């Protein structure tokens, strides 16, 4: 185990580490633009330079292997001068349109300009003009003037998503990122493409769905879990900070998901997510059910609970189709309150959609439900089957095929979204979605991840857990 010295302090390193990695591990910050821990080393931006004691030149730390007794300095006059010159070069042709750039507020180039340069450009040459909105895919647009050619995006498509979708075209200051000839898949078909928007250290790669919609300083990130498949990738759901809530101007934006980014978890998803997580808004912000009903007629919550309790009391062979989108807490609550009363089967709420990648060897799993693991652990893995004597069915969540329910048998249905089946049920409850409550999902490998609430529940909507408790103990819950 080599011992190295950074700024005079000694650290034990592992042989395979670089100086930048050792520095990171011990909280010593060295700037970086092209280096990313999930990608190979490119060594092209030159911002990460350090000086080896006794040498009169600088070297890049992202590609400097450790060796016994190595002594590096991260903040000498020479290092500072080199970083300043590097920033001058990197911004030589930059359009400095930060005022309208989506990356403003979280742009590494902005931060480094302030930290390591601070001066206006010393160039007298006109800037190179390049494409402003090059459509890389349906989801991503590229601003070539802002690109610093770090090649993170290119390396991601080659090394992680393996689509080989991007490459560098032309040479020198005419170099541009472009779709690569001979790609395995086009960026449009790369199920992980949106990771390059996060990876891009500047505002060159832009998400079309987020383009000019918000400023990042108006948003906060709430930790959550992607429900798109049984991988349960950890994510941040970004939404308006309460202090920046819109009042007259589009208040609906206050309870909308602005964007989704990965939340790194080495045990689940590493630093990546697939594009389905980015589209969480489309999944959760479908039209909502917002009132309990009896046979399609809106009723108060107490009346719906009383009707459901009567059906349960009268039933001799009730069956429950349990949601694999329920949280660990909800599933345990169902088990504790109604689990003994019902014959329970775990239901797949969602199946793969047309055109969706069903499974791959990076993250995407074929089971498109986040919590089949806990559901099956509590309720078994039997295929859904209705005995002839079934006299009540409780359907919790989406994916219950109502055409296949036993005919003439009463149905209690819990669902968060508008659906024709809501009105068909004898008793219907409008339930919350995951961004309106806290909980945990346990993924297919048994790793549990937490999600927190981003928004208040809409009026008329109740958490499933509270409905189960009320149905079991004959108490009522207050409608929100
Ligand atoms: S588009 Fe962004 S990630 Fe790709 S090379 Fe340019 S700066 Fe780097
Ligand atoms: S792999 Fe599954 S859990 Fe992860 S982001 Fe994609 S759909 Fe969501
Ligand atoms: S981070 Fe080391 S050269 Fe770019």
Describe the overall structure.
The structure is a single chain. The protein is an alpha+beta fold and 480 residues long. The protein is built from twelve helices and 22 strands. It has helices at 19-25, 77-90, 108-117, 152-159, 195-199, 275-278, 280-284, 301-314, 328-337, 372-379, 420-424, 464-473; strands spanning 3-6, 9-12, 49-52, 59-60, 71-73, 134-135, 140-142, 166-169, 176-179, 205-207, 219-225, 234-240, 259-262, 293-294, 297-298, 318-323, 343-347, 392-396, 411-415, 427-430, 439-442, 448-451. The strands form six sheets. A seven-stranded mixed sheet has the order 15-14-20-19-18-16-17. Strands 2-1-5-3-4 form a five-stranded mixed sheet, with helices on both faces. The chain has a three-stranded antiparallel sheet with strand order 6-7-10. Strand 11 and strand 12 form a beta hairpin. The radius of gyration is 27 Å and the shape is elongated. The relative contact order is 0.09. The model is unreliable at 475-480 (pLDDT under 50). It binds iron/sulfur cluster (2 copies) and FE2/S2 (inorganic) cluster.
